[in-house]
Design goal:
binds nicotinamide-adenine-dinucleotide; 11 helices; single chain; binds uridine-diphosphate-N-acetylglucosamine; two-stranded parallel ribbon; alpha/beta
Length: about 350
């Protein structure tokens, strides 16, 4: 009997790649998504890519905060575990509209935890972020590094983690893994699924990709005076397929009968390597054969100088390690962009 996994936010960027890896790994996948920042076409493509496993994917369009709908789903299906991606993620927007972020990200998580508990489903993988390390004083960031929040989005991740820790403290039959993602980029090597943000992208690589396909004239480089090798910010970019596989590793840990109780554990998912903005642009130019015009600008408020992960804990305890480097990330990002310059729904594009 294959394990059945509920994937909240599974139509989105990381969720769709994880849903595919789960299907290919023999899991049954049930996605709940309100399609607020995604398209159902991503899931149609996931089902195609999964070939014979495609029929093991099902989709329910509703908002996670709709408790009766979630109750009904849990009453109709028995889930072995939940991977909780659903959430809003644009930092700038969270500063403008904090209440919307607190409502969506926190209430969504509260409703989920409540319904899971009442149906006896107590295995959870929660999407956290390296944003909780703020501007780290020491790199690489280990799971023990101090955490803080620089904006409302970051606070929803911090509070989400804290809620999970409290839930475990109150009931030790829960098994929860908090995954702190560094900078997910790239796309599935097929070029059929990838990142398709609505509106103007906030993150570096979706913006670079849109410049490459002619949707935007130039990339603005935020900050050229950092104390780094070329003056631009350094991040730990991780291929989204590696990231998706990290979730399978987390599920394996939660389902391992030899592990009496993993409690509530946190793991970094990164590569442990730092890459500057200009290095990333050069790698993308090489992969795409496109020139990316640059506009040098001042630092973006809230940006850290250098952030990269310590990967030791995930390697040792999850038996997981990223396989891909930035050349593969850029190759696959370009393949996706070139095949889908306006994303999943060209007519709905908000350029
Ligand atoms: P995404 O926006 O592509 O996917 C999130 C999905 O959740 C979307 O499909 C959206 O429609 C859905 N959703 C949002 N609110 C919902 C709700 N209330 N009910 C049902 N569905 C809802 O984002 P992503 O990049 O795939 O990120 C997934 C998770 O990982 C998020 O929690 C995000 O904060 C976290 N994360 C992302 C990054 C990143 O750079 N992409 C980095 C660190 C952490
Ligand atoms: C941002 C968020 C962080 C979130 C993460 C992943 C901010 C302040 N932080 O982090 O909370 O967890 O995304 O979603 O928004 N850059 C440019 N030009 C651009 C875009 C980015 O030069 O148009 C630079 C940035 O200054 C940074 C690097 O590229 O040095 C990476 O930026 P980005 O992809 O936004 O990720 P983070 O800054 O790590």
């Amino acid at each position: 009997m294959s394990l059945s996994i509920l994937v909240t936010g599974g139509a989105g960027y990381i969720g769709s790649h994880t849903a595919l890896q789960l299907l290919l790994g023999g899991y049954k996948v049930v996605v709940v998504d309100n399609l607020d920042n995604s398209s159902q076409i991503s899931l149609e493509r996931v089902a195609q890519l999964a070939q014979d496993h495609g029929p093991n994917l099902s989709f329910h369009k509703f908002d996670l905060r709709d408790k009766p709908a979630l109750e009904e789903l849990f009453a109709s299906e028995k889930f072995d575990a939940v991977i909780h991606f659903a959430g809003l993620k644009a930092v700038g927007e969270s500063v403008q509209k904090p209440v919307i972020y607190y409502d969506n990200n926190l209430i969504g998580t509260i409703v989920l935890l409540d319904v899971m508990a009442s149906h006896g489903c107590k295995k959870l993988v929660f999407s956290s972020s390296a944003t909780v390390y703020g501007w780290p004083k020491v790199v690489p960031c280990t799971e023990e590094s101090p955490i803080c929040a620089m904006n409302p989005y970051g606070r929803t991740k911090l509070f989400g983690e804290e809620m999970c820790r409290d839930v475990y403290k109150s009931d030790s039959t829960w098994k929860i893994i908090l995954l702190r993602y560094f900078n997910p980029v790239g796309a599935h090597p097929s070029g059929a699924i990838g990142d398709d943000p609505r509106g103007i992208p906030n993150n570096l690589m979706p913006f670079v990709q849109q410049v490459a396909v002619g949707r935007r004239p130039a990339l603005t480089v935020y900050g050229t005076d950092y104390g780094t090798k070329d003056g631009t910010g350094i991040r730990d970019y991780i291929h989204v397929v590696d990231l998706a596989d990290g979730h399978i590793a987390a599920l394996n840990k939660l389902s391992d009968p030899s592990v009496v109780c993993t409690g509530c554990e946190v793991y970094n998912l990164g590569t442990g390597k730092g890459t500057s903005v200009l290095e990333m642009v050069t790698a993308f130019e090489k992969a795409s054969g496109k020139k990316i015009p640059l506009v040098m600008a001042g630092r973006r408020p809230g940006d850290a100088e250098v952030v990269y992960a310590s990967t030791e804990k995930a390697e040792q305890e999850l038996n997981w390690k990223a396989k891909y480097g930035i050349d593969e990330m850029c190759r696959d990002q370009w393949n996706w962009a070139n095949n889908n310059p306006y994303g999943y729904e060209p007519c709905a594009s908000t350029d």
